[in-house]
Structure prediction request, 458 residues.
Amino acid sequence: MLPIEQACFWLANLPPHPVHALAGTVRADVAIVGAGLTGLWTALFLKELDPAREVAVVEQGIAAWGASGRNAGMLAETVDHGHAAAIEHFGEAEAARLARLGEKNVAEMIAFLAERGVDCDFEPTGRMMVALTEAQVLEAQRAVETAARLGVHTYAFRDREAVQAEVHSPLYRGAVSVRGGGILDPAKLTDGLRREAERRGVTVYERSPVVAVRTHGSGASVETAGGRIDASRVVLATSAYTHRLLPRVARWFLPLWDYILVSEPLDERQWHAVGWRGRQGISDGRTFFNYYRPTRDGRVLWGTSEAVYYRGDRVGPECEHSEPHYAALRESWRRHFPQLADLRFEYAWGGAICSTTRLTPFFGHAHDGRVLYGLGFTGHGLGTTRIAGRILAHLALERRSDLLDLTLVRRKPFPLPPGPLRGFAVDRVTRDLRRVDEGGAPSVFLRLLDRLGIGFSS
Ligand SMILES: Cc1cc2nc3c(=O)[nH]c(=O)nc-3n(C[C@H](O)[C@H](O)[C@H](O)COP(=O)(O)OP(=O)(O)OC[C@H]3O[C@@H](n4cnc5c(N)ncnc54)[C@H](O)[C@@H]3O)c2cc1C
Prediction:
């Protein structure tokens, strides 16, 4: 199996840049572990709040090596998994606030990228959630109504004829199309933020795995094999890897592995056979859904949220590929687009999603408040990590912000079971949810979790 830098379409096509590893002891006001979107947005907001602060970022791979460079690049404006989930978890008033916040965040992000010349092949295509069963058609109609109730008027229902005319899959029975957001190259985005952070004076150390975070004097330090940063505050922007540095945080999240294929480029005849002139990102209404989008050079990215939990919260290189998932992905492509059943897939890789029981991020601190963390974006971090970066920057500098009142900042999600029980619980929920995806009724167990407001998804 190929190493991730060659296996992942985005990383394999990212131009190389000079890499500096951490060596010796250095000093910073804020040290950030993780050069994914969360870490880099945090660095940028720290510099915006106080350009004089010394900010250093330490990354075990290169910037974008984690989920930020491996994802599908489908940018949505929702902070939660959807408006209905936001209402369930936070109530209607806060769900409306999150909806406005999400829209404003994406608009500001697009403006920032344009203004700073961060080229990440962004296309403002909107997106589409397709319904594959009659139950999902009703869900789609309800999603449009719920959005309107929260003051969001970018959602529209499309019937079977309309959606099949747009993208020619015989499986589609209807859809919600959403104006806003779009598709982009996530590795270029993350690497572009790295360059922008460096331009503003942030030091980025790459190929420098942090092995320990300790208190030090009145602050904290991060240690690698070859060096150390002594800082007043440390921010862990380490997503699904956070438990390796701060084991107790594992109670609030689950590392789940999603897998993706990217095809060979399609020719004109093949594109004609699938339609898809709008080039929007598409996902379907199941819990374990497919998500897909075209790439700039005319390929199809085809992913699945049929995620794997590796017992013991493992996130090592052994999780990075899964042949059974690649075979299932090829099979699901053929079901969706039988007219292109012989399409070949040239890239295949996995990435770690950080999931919580309420499907939204959480924030906290350790070591007497000297170490901060923010993680748990599930499969929706492309936009939300920017909000998280703003939150973490304000927390690190102890500045006031309206964002700090959000329930998702003030409260942790319902904890997950510890140790071996965790694996059993995941297996049980997965089995029951799969049955619902196949058209069955939710089990008593699922109904109970639902009542407690506990979700499970990548
Ligand atoms: C397959 C897949 C598809 C997805 N599709 C989408 C999508 O289409 N749209 C969307 O909105 N979201 C999507 N997501 C989710 C999105 O990618 C994430 O929510 C987001 O990238 C999280 O960013 P992050 O910076 O918090 O985490 P990461 O990008 O994972 O960054 C964490 C960084 O910390 C580094 N790190 C960890 N431990 C250490 C250590 N000890 N020392 C040094 N560095 C360390 C890692 O190497 C990594 O670079 C997807 C995710 C995956 C995996």
